Amino acid sequence: MTHKRTLLTVGAHPDDIEIGMGGTVAQHSKTDNVYMLSLTEGDLSSNGTVETRQQEAERAAEILGAQRLQLTWRDRMLTAVTQEEYTQLVQLIRRIQPDTIFAPYYIDRHPDHGDAGNIVKRALFDAGVKLYPGVDENAHKVPDMYYYMINGYHRPTFYVDITTAAGDKEAALRAYKSQFNLGEEATSTPLTDGYLETIQARDRLFGKETGVTYAEGFIAETPMLFQQVPGKQGSD
Q1: Residue 17 — φ and ψ, nearest 5°?
Q2: How would you label 184-222 residue by residue, b for 16+ Cβ within 10 Å and e otherwise?
Q3: How many other β-carbons are positioned within 10 Å of the β-carbon of residue 45?
Q4: Domain segments of the chain: what residues?
Q5: Distance of CA 60 to the CA centre of its chain
């Protein structure tokens, strides 16, 4: 019987995960337990209220087939997270016991994204410290952590073919109407200026690099070990 894995994906704001790895979430949700955790509610966003964004995030997670989790850390204050708030993340990792954690790549134009990646890396370590104070759950060492990209392009360590899930990813992103649609009363931001097309273009580029239609790229900080030489499925 195939082992059903548990994946914990983390974003600084609602929509981060969908942008960087929505297709991968959609694919793994069919066979694995996938959680989508937002550290903040995105309360300082130029468009949309917290309530609206929460509704959009719930709809996006439903489309992708994932279980959604929400912390209420302060937007743009991830460098000032309290010990109590930080312990919430450590406790959550221990409770879920993920096999793999995904976080935003730390090189990004938005400071919160990089800060989130660094915080998750630290929390992953502390989740495995048996005597870490203030946490009830048993220690859990997460085997793997990878970074996904939100803004920009970086050379991936590996790619995931999302060709069959590209439609689900687009639908999940379009659930965030308050963020990506420039309505009459909306404020112009990078997200309303062809952002979805830019994300799709990056997925197409990654797909082109790997011989598929759409792909998402991920970055690993540690060497990746295989039991056998990897190869493309279906290759002659």
Answers
A1: -65, -45
A2: eebeeeebbeebbebbeebbeebbeebebebbbbbbeee
A3: 21
A4: 6-220
A5: 13
Q: How many whole angstroms separate alpha carbon 60 and alpha carbon 208?
A: 26
CATH for 6-220, among 3.40.50.10320, 3.40.50.920, 3.10.290.10, 3.30.43.10?
3.40.50.10320
**Whole-angstrom Cα distance, residue 125 to residue 193?**
38
Q: What is the pLDDT of residues 91-150, one digit of tens each?
A: 999 999 999 999 999 999 999 999 999 999 999 999 999 999 999 899 999 999 999 999
Residue range 11-52, pLDDT digits in tens: 999 999 999 999 999 999 999 999 999 999 999 999 999 999
Task: Scan for tokens 């959009």, then name that residue.
Answer: 56
- CA 87-26-127 angle, to 5 degrees, is 20
- Cα 53 to the chain's mean position, in Å? 16
Which amino acid appears at position 74 of this protein? R
Task: Write out pLDDT tens, residues 151-199.
Answer: 999 999 999 999 999 999 999 999 999 999 988 778 999 999 999 999 9
For residues 166 and 27, what is the distance between their CA atoms, to the nearest angstrom?
A: 10
pTM over 0.90: yes
